[in-house]
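User: I've been trying to design a sequence by hand for this structure and keep getting stuck. Would you show me what you'd pick, starting by listing the structure so we're on the same page?

Assistant: Good idea, let's start from the same input. This is the structure you sent:
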């Protein structure tokens, strides 16, 4: 039987979409639409997995950015220790339930973490999901005592305790508790009391470094990663004091840290990416590595991140990690650039305005196609690549145009504020590919992605080779 999310929010048939679109060229399809470069996604996912494996830490990918089975499998790789995932909606987990049940049946230990503090109305759906996937397959976040009332309900429906991670606020102030506060201390006591009754199990602590998006260097990202690990380490030690006071054994809590800038910053830790690095960076890397090894002696450390398979203009602005554009390695000394961004939004030029104070153009794509989140590195809503144009301007494949103003279904192209010289010539009816500011929001405007592959022969790089359908629903 299909899960509620699949029943209520059916997706279009992938087979039907393939029949209609696979083999066509990007210029042959009506815009706007979303394009994914499969080769770039594969590189980004592989580099993240290899960095975590080299450091000896776990990795729990977030699937909210792409909402597809295909990218999830790339994020997990071999899933040698079972599939550990974060979801923002239960529907995301429901669409993966059969795959995760298969892992469970093979003796692996999949686990889905519902990545917002637990809404009480969702506990029955989570219990159904656990029963469908297998033992210990569902975990939740809590940051308020009232959320623990769902523990006995879950236990009654599944026969096992509800696994909880306490959400810790280390400066982002979106969700979670400061571990130095009385509220945090009281929540620990409440969780451990319910743990004695058998209705919940405290398995760890989780923080999200959303404030890392304002950083602008690898050093800033590594410093914040250190703060994350130190903060959760202190939170876990505090919880262990309560364990000891209650005569309980010392559990090996999971400490889950990350956001794409801080999680991907570990890719700077290895020799191939340290070419030309400053003494400050070397010192921070050494400090972070020592801290990781010390914490791992008593706790299980894992990274989590979500937008890293796609990247976007916001992530480029953080300059947190090295480029993965060279096959199988890191481009020495190079920061991530547009060559590492897998998602572009295709739009059509519908009008030109050469008589305005500076030349502008109108595209038939606005906030519903691109999102409306700003980026600190420039004053626009997307950067137009030089795809389909004569030559690039200003490096990194830029055309000299940006989406300078935006409304629901309209975008106004203006001069790229970070490029010298005149923008490249446009014509009406021309399609342009745009790097969005925030991939998570831009992708949400589309039901599926058209897949291209930049490793194919040059005359096939604009060919649609696959279609990946996004999951719908909450």
């Amino acid at each position: 039987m299909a899960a509620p999310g699949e029943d209520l929010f059916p997706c279009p048939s992938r087979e039907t979409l393939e029949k209609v679109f696979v083999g066509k060229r990007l210029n042959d399809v009506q815009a706007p639409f979303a394009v994914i470069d499969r080769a770039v996604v594969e590189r980004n996912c592989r580099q993240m997995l290899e960095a975590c494996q080299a450091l000896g830490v776990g990795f729990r990918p977030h699937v909210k950015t792409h909402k597809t089975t295909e990218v999830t499998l790339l994020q997990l790789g071999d899933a040698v220790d079972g599939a550990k995932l974060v979801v923002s909606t239960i529907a995301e987990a429901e669409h993966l339930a059969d795959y995760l049940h298969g892992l469970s049946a093979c003796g692996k230990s999949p686990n889905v973490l519902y990545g917002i503090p637990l809404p009480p109305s969702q506990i029955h759906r989570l219990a159904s999901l656990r029963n469908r996937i297998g033992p210990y397959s569902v975990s939740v976040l809590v940051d308020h005592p009232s959320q623990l009332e769902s523990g006995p309900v879950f236990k009654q429906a599944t026969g096992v305790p509800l696994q909880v991670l306490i959400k810790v606020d280390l400066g982002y102030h979106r969700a979670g508790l400061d571990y130095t506060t009385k509220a945090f201390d009281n929540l620990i006591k409440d969780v451990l009391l319910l743990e004695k009754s058998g209705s919940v199990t405290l398995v760890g602590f989780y923080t999200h470094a959303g404030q890392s998006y304002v950083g602008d260097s690898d050093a800033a990202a590594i410093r914040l990663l250190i703060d994350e690990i130190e903060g959760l380490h202190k939170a876990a030690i505090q919880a262990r004091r309560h364990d000891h006071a209650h005569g309980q054994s010392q559990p090996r809590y999971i400490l889950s840290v990350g956001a794409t800038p801080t999680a991907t910053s570990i890719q700077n830790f290895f020799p191939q990416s340290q070419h030309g690095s400053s003494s400050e960076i070397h010192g921070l890397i050494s400090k972070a590595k020592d801290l990781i090894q010390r914490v791992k002696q008593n706790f299980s450390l894992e990274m989590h991140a979500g937008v890293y398979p796609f990247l976007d203009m916001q992530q480029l602005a953080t300059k947190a990690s090295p480029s993965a554009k060279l096959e199988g390695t890191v481009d020495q000394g190079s920061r991530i650039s547009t060559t590492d961004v897998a998602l572009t939004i295709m739009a059509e030029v519908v009008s030109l305005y050469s008589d305005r104070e500076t030349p502008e153009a109108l595209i038939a794509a606005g906030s519903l196609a691109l999102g409306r989140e700003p980026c600190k590195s420039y004053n626009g809503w997307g950067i137009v690549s030089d795809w389909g144009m004569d030559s690039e301007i200003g490096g990194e494949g830029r055309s000299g145009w940006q989406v300078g103003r935006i409304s629901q279904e309209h975008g106004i192209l203006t001069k790229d504020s970070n490029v010298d010289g005149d923008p490249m010539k446009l014509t009406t009816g021309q399609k342009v590919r745009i790097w969005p500011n925030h991939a998570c929001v831009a992708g949400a405007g589309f039901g599926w992605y058209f897949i291209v592959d930049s490793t194919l022969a040059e005359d096939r790089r604009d060919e649609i080779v696959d279609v990946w359908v996004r999951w719908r629903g909450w």
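That's my pick for every position. To get oriented when you compare it with your attempt: The chain has two domains: 38-318, 342-443. The first strand starts at residue 33 and ends at 37.
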